[in-house]
Amino acid sequence: MNIEPIITYFSNILPLNTDEINALKSSFKERKIKRRQFILHQGDVCTLNTFVVEGCFRMYFVDKNGKEHNIQFAIENWWIGDIGSFHSEKPSKLYIEAIENSIVLQIKKENQLRLFVNQPKFNLMFRVFTENALVAYQERVLQNISSTAEERYLDFTKRYPHFFNRISNVQIASFLGVTPEFLSTIRKKIAKS
């Protein structure tokens, strides 16, 4: 198992000592995920917090009409999981699917809690990650209710330029809350101006 990516990830935030590195090694498990394989299905309880070492994932919701709505994408050095289900231990309303062949490091809830108690530095870092994720979700909600589709697309291109060769236009359109055809119209309009 290659734990180095997550050691580097945490060490870039706060330096880790030998005990903290050993705690990471004993807490995380590596998994190889094939493209289109799920790491979470709607109705299952999210029992794992997932760190992406290699690859790309999408988290999405399926509405009562069967339409998919992308909530989040995750690539290398990003976290993905249904935080509500993970903490409440209630069934998830979301799916998490690999868009590419991927390698992840996953931690069970009980191991994460043990890490927090035995190595308090991780409690602090995970709290900051959660707060940053909450801020990002708030910004996204505000943008969705106050911006045009074109403004949302332009913001997406600025924030996530590294997604464009990895995620289809259909997936981007779903994330932005528009149809693929409307996204195509927006892109053509921007290209002309």
Summarize it.
It contains eight helices and eight strands, in the order H-H-E-E-E-E-E-E-H-E-E-H-H-H-H-H. With 193 residues, it is of the alpha+beta class.
Description:
It is built from eight helices and eight strands, in the order H-H-E-E-E-E-E-E-H-E-E-H-H-H-H-H. The chain is an alpha+beta fold and 193 residues long. The protein has a domain at 4-119: Jelly Rolls, CATH 2.60.120.10. The strands form two sheets. Strands 1-8-3-6 form a four-stranded antiparallel beta sheet. A hairpin with a 5-residue loop joins strand 4 (57-62) and strand 5 (68-74). Helix 4 (109-118) packs across helix 5. The protein is globular and about 55 Å long. 25% of the residues are buried. The model has no long low-confidence stretch (mean pLDDT 94).
Question: Mean pLDDT, rounded to whole units?
Answer: 94
The main pleated sheet reads as: 4 strands, antiparallel
What structural category arises from helix and sheet content? alpha+beta
Output the number of helix runs: 8
End-to-end separation in angstroms reads 49 Å
CATH architecture of one domain: Sandwich
Q: Give the DSSP E fraction (strand runs of 2 or more residues).
A: 15-25%
| Uncertain runs | none
Give the overall shape, derived from the CA principal axes.
globular
What is the CA-based Rg, rounded?
Answer: 18 Å
Q: Roughly how much helix do the residues carry, as a percent range?
A: 40-55%
Instruction: Give the strand order, joined by hyphens, for the main sheet.
Output: 1-8-3-6
What is the number of E strands?
A: 8
